[in-house]
Amino acid sequence: MTATTKSMSLIVTKGTLDWAYPPFILATTAASMGLNVTMFFTFYGLTLLKKKLDLKVTTLGNAAMEMPMMGMHMVMPNLMGALPGMDGATTMMMKDLIKKKGIASIEELRDLAVEAEVRMIGCQMTLDLFEYKTTDLIDGIELAGAATYIETATKCDINLFI
Amino acid sequence: MSNTVLDVKGLNCPLPILRAKKAIKDLAAGGVLEVIATDPGSVKDFDAFCRQTGNELVSQKEDGGVYTFEIKKGA
Q1: What is the CATH number of domain A7-53+105-161?
Q2: Stretch(es) of chain A classified as CATH 3.40.1260.10
Q3: In A, which residues are within 8 Å of B42 by CB distance?
């Protein structure tokens, strides 16, 4: 590590399939460009550290969701998410699109982040709050709190909240 | 010496960059990696990637939606 090595930290707060992408894309790309990267997973973001990922996407509360379909865009009505089985269907649609467009899976991006030695910190408070066990989470992560994040962030060139 | 070729056709952001980074790691300094991609976003991204990492983007060309980049590994 030279003194000129750039660094980035990310606070990851969301645990849905769609919102899992920005932090992992940015983390892996920054690492590939030589930055030291730290990810702090808190609240729903902590689920992204579970060994077995089962991420879903919902139309609820997302008025901007449009899915490409037969050359057009289908607006996904907000309330559709309230119907039983709808989130499952929307998730399948999204996963299908992801595969078709040559976009990496979250599992793949997370493996690449681990491989690139991205530092991953799980929020201890969230772990206690939602009663997760450390054995539910992938190996090689740290558990810590806000002070650890703040100390890291003071030394980073880029700090993002996602 | 022939170039190492990396085919990332059909892959989308950020995979072309991540795969290229891995391939460059295995090159000797001064070695050239040829990347073949179809992601239109990779044009600006390889530019930025090379500037940031000290590798040289020797050439880039487009032919029918296929982009070819030649990246020379920095010292």
Answers
A1: 3.40.1260.10
A2: 7-53+105-161
A3: none
> Which CATH architecture group holds B4-72?
2-Layer Sandwich (3.30)
Of A25, A32, A103, the CB nearest to B21: A32
Q: Which residue of A has its CA nearest to B55?
A: A33
Whether the predicted pLDDT of B1 surpasses 60: no
- CB nearest A102 (choices: B12, B18, B49): B12
Kindly tell me the sign of the dihedral angle through the C-alpha atoms of A7, B50, B71, B41.
positive
pTM: 0.91
- State yes or no: is B13 an active-site residue: yes
Q: Using CB atoms, which residue from B13, B49, B53 is nearest to A25?
A: B13
Q: Could you state, in order of their start, the residue ranges of all structural domains in chain B?
A: 4-72
Q: Do A28 and B11 touch (CB under 8 A)?
A: no
Q: Is B26 exposed, middle or buried (0-12, 13-18, 19+ CB in 10 A)?
A: exposed
Whether the CB-CB separation of B71 and B56 falls below 8 Å is answered with yes
pLDDT tens, residue by residue, A102-136: 999 999 999 999 999 999 999 999 999 999 999 99
* Residue A155 tokens, joined: 């030394």
* Percentage of the residues of chain B whose pLDDT score is greater than 70: 97
Whether A111 and A117 have beta carbons less than 8 Å apart is answered as: no
Chain B residues near residue A112 by CB distance under 8 angstroms: 18
